[in-house]
Amino acid sequence: MAREKLKTPFLPPVDDPQVRTGVRPLVRPEDCRTFAVAGVVPQIVSSFRSLADASAWIKTLTNEGASVVIRGAGTKQWRPPAPPAVDAVLDTTRWAGIVDYEPADLTVTVRSGTRLRDLQTALHAHRQFFPVDPPFAERATVGGVLGAACNGALRQRYGSLRDNVLGMRVCLSDGTLAHAGSKVVKSVAGYDIHKLFVGAHGTLGLIGEVTLRLAPWPAHQHTLCAAFDTPGTACEALAGFDRRALFPMASVLLDPAAAQRVRSLPPRGACWSLVVRCGGASAAAAAELRDEVAAACRESGARNFSDHDWDGTQSVWADIAELAGGEMYPAESWLSARVSCLPADVPEACLRLEALCPGAELTAHPFTGTIFAAAPVVGEPEADPVQRAARLEEECRKAGWALAYLAAPQHLAGLLRQPVPQGAPVSLMRRVKAALDPSGTFNPGVFLAGI
Amino acid sequence: MQPDLVERLTAIVGPSHVVRDPAELTSYQYDGSADRALPDAVVFPADAEQVRLIVEACREFECPFVARGAGTGLSGGALAEAGGVLIVTSRLRHILELDVANRLAVVEPGVVNAHVSEAAKPYGLHFVPDPSSQGACSIGGNVAENSGGLHCLAYGVTAHHVLGCEVVTPDGDLVWLGGKRYDEPGYDLLGVFVGSEGTLGIATKVAVKLTPLRRTRHTLLASFTTPDDASRAVSEIIASGVVPAALEMMDGLSVRTIEDFVHAGLPVQAGAVLLVDVEDLPIAAAQTAAHVRTVCERAGADEVRQARTEQEAHRLWLGRKSAFGAMGRLSASYYVADGVIPRTKLPQVLGEVARIGERYGLRIANVFHAGDGNLHPLIAFDDRTPGEYERTVAAAADILRACVRAGGSITGEHGVGVEKRDCMTLQFSPADLALMSRLKAAFNPDGLCNPGKIFPTSRRCGESARIASRGGIAPDTARAAGAAF
Ligand SMILES: Cc1cc2nc3c(=O)[nH]c(=O)nc-3n(C[C@H](O)[C@H](O)[C@H](O)COP(=O)(O)OP(=O)(O)OC[C@H]3O[C@@H](n4cnc5c(N)ncnc54)[C@H](O)[C@@H]3O)c2cc1C
Fold it and tell me: Ligand 1 within 6 A of B338 CB?
């Protein structure tokens, strides 16, 4: 597994006479290249240690007409399209830590630069967790996971990321510091503006602090892997889960190539693997669910099974998370995309994607109708992947599936645009962008339809 | 109202679907709250296109317009606060699609909440949000208020169960926010639309998620000597890593009032009662039920009873759902407050609520979503007693202050509307409110769509806006809403 390493993560701050606020340049100008976004090098990279400082600095940059890219761990820097310009990068990784955690309330308030992994470690001490399993799990920051709406397979049982965000403190381009939502698990006071920031890719403002809804950690977990001849039969098993009223934590469908990348799964040859994570508060409860899941799989024609206890579960799911446009498919050589369709269309979509993109590897979250596809692009003549992408976009449009590019090599990132689904409320989105970021400071031109 | 606009509206929906008669209009000046406002006209569109044409016409004539579902809202959201046209969705009540394979339904906004679950039941599915008013309230109203329900503790509120909405925007466009799929590209406009109290547009279709019905359900009733003990049990259940499907509390006054009304078999001598549902596969459900029982007993429960039959469980829940209706017997009127606090603060804030009642000389009953920390103090009052309504509103405001001080929210599910708009400043700074009005302007630039809601006026929180001729939920509404169960 190739990992892209930060070469100069944190040099000591250097003094810059231009910077009068408490914000510090994080690196010397000659090292800004490390913080390039899809190859576009910023002029200044800075960090902050209080939201007041961040606000003042953002206001300064806005007044200078600068474009600002907010950056957590930088795992999304290869998401197409490449930005037209990046003047400043605002690095959140020094804005880390838990602000408030009351385990008995199942809520936590955390700074956006906190590594998700560090947060989970703190929560695990109280047998709780923030129920999301995004790619780049070892590096990603909470703010980055939210900003990119990196829903993982746990969405099946625990709901979408945005539904587990209770409130936020944000900073807008004019320096406004405001909060939305609340710190309690239920509130309908005012507009839920925090939900807009989930998936906005840093185009509306800086996520400063977030309050999250937590879940009890299922003390007992099993992972069942069942082999099917076709994606269709695997998805029938899922319909069986519904009929039996089974609520596993997560289910993923892996094509043969993707399954081979999961280290602790036994070799399966040409089979499609349905991997199901079963959790319970007791050993008996977890086993009860596992047995029912196995029965549903058998009914749908599963050929063989493997069953992993907790140790196995941990490593299987760590690998599976990285199949969703994550560390498994480094952007230098892979084009990663996400196709969203209705759950019942997953088998057909999988087969169509395989036919369209030879060599592509597929990982689906069949419960939500989400398919992650990675296609190798190394050594191809330049036009080829672009043409193929155009064909893919056309096919998805015709089928009514939504397509989003997650990562692409530098030479492609400049050529691809995020496809706009037919009928998308683009003018409303433009107005929302203009209302929150009238100066167009944050991450301009990289979102949807040039926003 | 301009005659030309009336003519336009009549041409759009037909003469029999426009109300202009002053006597008839008065029945649309109420919702479930204590506030009221008279619309100039009421229209009943038959489809999304008619809604769009109505909105277009209102814009042309610069006339305010307000969507209204069943009118069970408890914050004045559906009141024509600035006059204008009330757009009632009662003819938009078709379930358009029931897609079992994809676990979703597409419904019109006027569909009654409970009807969705009834339609899905033959397939073993249901629509999770189950407000106590589910026999009457509309899906459009649920979306607008982001309504909760008894079983939202484990499974989430309306926002968690809506995939998309077809919306007539305040400037007359018809667009989908979200869709039938997950992960529609672009900003999550659906995320802000749900819960926006009808101020960002009118939903004309709603795609909702359906969820398989759990196989095994156990209903437990635990009675305690004091609300403090019951609160402690709630905190301990949640802290122990168990999130039951439902976890409701009724204090002694509520229990006795409800029992008088519906004879559900509630223990009338109790100081507080917890009603708990656990749902799962058989083994897991049995274990969780046993665990909940142990925690309650450890917290000092006098009795923990488990319903032996489905009918017994149904009767207990019927008692809980009839709470608002039953309160009508306690006093001429009552006022429902709706604050939220962190669950660990339950004992402290319930104590404060009791002291507030004493201070104002008002009786307060508590029937609420304890598992979420969502309080519903019901303040009994009689508006024939001069000043009592004003004291009630002031007491409710003090309760909300206590909730915010404890780190909570001024509303958990009933919305801000007219009723709590002046209390928004308790929870939000001027900068927070300015951000909200920027968002509102992006959707609703000329402010014609449901004006006068959510944002504070110059009044103080707790100052009553008007002398109520009546207060609380109209007995008819409460009965219709509760009795359907
Ligand atoms: C006895 C009783 C019990 C209740 N129990 C609960 C409970 O347990 N949980 C809970 O959350 N609430 C509860 N409520 C409150 C109320 O029932 C809910 O808020 C409900 O969702 C309102 O639905 P409605 O159709 O009556 O909406 P209305 O009162 O008609 O309208 C409410 C708001 O929705 C807007 N609206 C309506 N339709 C649309 C549309 N198509 N598009 C856009 N906006 C629209 C209106 O403009 C208004 O702002 C209860 C009320 C009563 C009377």
Answer: no
* Distance between A278 CA and the closest CA of chain B, angstroms: 12
Using pLDDT thresholds of 50, 70 and 90, give the confidence band for residue A381: low
Structure tokens at A126: 């109280």
Quick check: is A327 in a domain? Answer: no
A288 touches chain B (CB under 8 A): yes
pLDDT of residue A395: 95
Binning pLDDT at 50, 70 and 90, where does residue B329 land? confident
Domain match, A103 and A143 both: yes
Q: Kindly state the DSSP code that residue A420 receives in the 8-state scheme.
A: P
Residue A193 touches partner B, C-beta closer than 8 Å: yes
Contact residues on chain B for A106, CB-CB shorter than 8 A: 238, 243, 343
Residue pLDDT, tens place only, B385-439: 999 999 999 999 999 999 999 999 999 999 999 999 999 999 999 999 999 999 9
Q: B146: which chain A residues are within 8 Å (Cβ-Cβ)? A: 188, 192
Shared domain check, A212 and A227 = no
Asked if the C-beta of A150 comes within 8 angstroms of chain B's C-beta atoms, the answer is no
Residue A188 located in a structural domain: yes
Q: What is the ipTM of this complex?
A: 0.95
Query: Which of A216, A232, A261 is where one domain is finished?
Result: A216
Rg (CA), chain A: 22
Looking up residue A406, the CATH number of its domain turns out to be: 3.30.70
Delineate the domains of chain B, giving CATH numbers in brackets.
3-90+441-453+468-484 (3.30.43.10), 95-212 (3.30.465.10), 216-326 (3.30.70.2190), 330-419 (3.30.70.2740)
Residue to mutate, B43, B74, B143, B378, ligand 1, most ligand atoms under 8 Å from C-beta: B74
User: Does A9 score more than 70 pLDDT?
Assistant: no
The number of distinct structural domains making up chain A is 4
A-chain CB neighbours of B215 within 8 Å are: 244-245
* CA distance to partner chain B, nearest, from residue A365 (Å): 11
Instruction: Pick B192's closest partner by Cβ from A193, A247, A419.
Output: A193
Joined tokens for residue A21: 């606020």
Q: Which residues of B touch A179 (CB under 8 A)?
A: 428-429, 432
**Has residue A429 been placed in a domain?**
no
Parallel/antiparallel/unpaired status of strands B85-88 and B41-43? parallel
- Of the three residues A216, A247, A263, the one that is the final residue of a domain is A216
* Residue A109 near chain B (CB below 8 Å): no
Kindly give the number of the ligand 1 atom that is closest to the alpha carbon of B32.
Answer: 53
Residue A310 in this model has a pLDDT that exceeds 80: no
| Locus of tokens 């905190």 | B235
Distance (Å, whole) CA B217 – CA B5: 54
8 Å CB contact between B420 and B383? no
DSSP string, B320-336: HHTHHHHHTTTSSEEEE
Q: Do A249 and A211 belong together in one domain? A: no
Question: Could you read off the pLDDT of B345-392 as tens digits, one per residue?
Answer: 999 999 999 999 999 999 999 999 999 999 999 999 988 899 999 999
* Most informative mutation of B50, B137, B443, B476 for ligand 1 (most atoms within 8 A of CB): B137
**Cβ-based contacts under 8 A for chains A and B:** 271
More confident: B264 or A22: B264
| CATH number, residue A87 | 3.30.43.10
Same domain, A109 and A61: no
Contact at CB, B185 and A190, closer than 8 angstroms: no
Question: Where in the sequence is the domain holding A341, given as residue range(s)?
Answer: 334-413
The pLDDT, as a whole number, for residue A143 is 98
Is A149 within 8 Å of B281 when comparing Cβ atoms?
no
Confidence of residue B481 (pLDDT cuts 50, 70, 90): very low
Contact status, residue B115 vs residue B211, Cβ threshold 8 Å: no
Give phi and psi for B15, each to the nearest 5. Answer: -60, -30
Determine the pLDDT at residue B485: 33
Asked if A311 and A226 sit in the same domain, the reply is: yes
pLDDT of residue B470: 43
Closest approach of A287 to chain B, Cα-based (Å): 10
Supply the pLDDT for residue A380. 64
In a domain, A437, yes or no: no
Binary contact (B435, A178; C-beta < 8 A): yes
**Separation in Å, CA A119 to CA A115, A137, A212, A320:** 6, 11, 11, 20
Which pLDDT tens digit goes with each residue over A325-354?
Answer: 999 999 999 999 999 999 999 999 999 999
Q: Which segments within B252-371 are labelled E, that is strand?
A: 272-280, 303-306, 333-336, 363-368
Across chain B, which distance is largest between two alpha carbons, in Å? 70
